[in-house]
Amino acid sequence: MIYLVCLIAGGALLALSLVHGLDHDGGLDGHDLPHALAWLNLRSVVTAVTFFGLAGVLMGWLGRPPGVRLAFASVTGVLVAGVTGALMYQLRTREVGTRVGSLVGRTGRVLVAPAGTRPGKIKLELAGQLAEVLVRSEDELRVGEDVIVVEAQGGLVSVRRWDGR
């Protein structure tokens, strides 16, 4: 029964995130975590729950004993979470890293204000498309404020408040 609940609930959340583009990290963005856990985000957890449920249901359908079902479902969930999280982390850091030179001097709008060591997120236009970028700032920023990119290094860019001058 738990496998079916995980499959249905996780599958619904996963489908919702894919259809509506919900890629929020739920506060787990890899920058506040030890390097070994930098891949951890909300999508990897939801994917783990979904595939844990799928594997458990599949093993039950094949008539495997409870211990085998649990072991197979657990390993499947962890492996899928690791792969999903690692891919999302690579996309998030590589996306900014491949465009570093083109980000400096661009302006954007704050979507999530950075606070302390927790990065924020801005939206800016890049190559004719809107892009969301993880940022840090020495300024205290609020959602909706305009910012300018002053430096790009690693997977984060540094921004400052921008008054249009």
Commentary on this structure:
- The protein has helices at residues 2-20, 42-61, 66-97, 100-103; strands at 107-112, 120-126, 129-137, 146-153, 156-161.
- The protein has a five-stranded mixed barrel.
- The N and C termini lie far apart (61 Å).
- Strand 4 and strand 5 form a beta hairpin.
- The protein is elongated, with a radius of gyration of 19 Å.
- It has four helices and five strands.
- The protein has two domains: 2-97; 100-161, Nucleic acid-binding proteins (OB fold (Dihydrolipoamide Acetyltransferase, E2P)), CATH 2.40.50.
- Helix 1 (2-20) crosses helix 2 (42-61).
- It is α+β, with helices and mostly antiparallel strands and 165 residues long.
Number of domains: 2
Shape: elongated
Biggest sheet record: 5 strands, mixed, barrel
Q: Helicity, in percent?
A: 40-55%
Task: Give me the side-by-side strand order of the main sheet.
Answer: 1-2-3-5-4
Instruction: Look at the structure and give the mean pLDDT.
Output: 79
**Class derived from helix and strand content:** alpha+beta
Q: What low-confidence regions span 5 or more consecutive residues with pLDDT below 50?
A: 24-33
The percent range for strand residues is: 15-25%
In short:
With 165 residues, the chain is an alpha+beta fold.
Give the helices and strands, then pairings.
Layout (H helix, E strand, L loop, with lengths): L1 H19 L21 H20 L4 H32 L2 H4 L3 E6 L7 E7 L2 E9 L8 E8 L2 E6 L4
Parallel strand pairs: 3-5
Antiparallel strand pairs: 1-2, 1-4, 2-3, 4-5
Helix pairs in contact: 1-2, 2-3
